[in-house]
Amino acid sequence: MKHSQIKDFYKSIFSSYDKPSLETHIKKIIELDTYLPYSSTFFCLTNTQSLKFEYVSKNFKSCLGLDSNLLKTNGMRYFWSRIHPEDLEKWLKALNELM
After folding, report:
1. What is the CA radius of gyration of the chain?
2. How far is residue 65's CA from residue 49's CA, in Å, rounded to a whole number?
């Protein structure tokens, strides 16, 4: 397959998802949490500008034993305060690389 054919193929794929809505994706992720079984992992949707958590999955309490309402109310600074000081810099560095 030629380079131009590959580019055209990808254009057709992405045109089928023209103007995706971030809000739609977030709603789908939240809906999915209802169907996921309880496990040893959790996920959060964060607003990095306000340092708040927009959503915290149901597994948060079973994973960490912490109240998810505290996390939503107090935001990322509260979460960071729960991380051992020696690990905090590594955690922030990993997040920075992901962003």
Report:
1. 18
2. 26
pTM of the full structure:
0.64
Closest by CA position to 70, among listed 90, 41, 44: 44
Q: 48 near 73, Cβ under 8 Å?
A: no
Beta strands in 1-77 (DSSP E): 44-47, 52-56
Digit-coded pLDDT (tens) for 29-40: 889 888 888 888
Q: How many domains does the chain have?
A: 1
User: Phi-psi category of 75—alpha, beta or left, where left has phi over 0 and alpha has psi -120 to 50?
Assistant: left
In a domain, 15, yes or no: no
Is 83 inside any structural domain? yes
Instruction: HSE, CB side, 13 Å, CA atoms: give it for residue 10.
Output: 6
One-letter amino acid at 78 equals Y
Query: What percent of the chain is modeled with pLDDT above 90?
Result: 19
Cβ atoms of 38 and 62 within 8 Å: the answer is yes
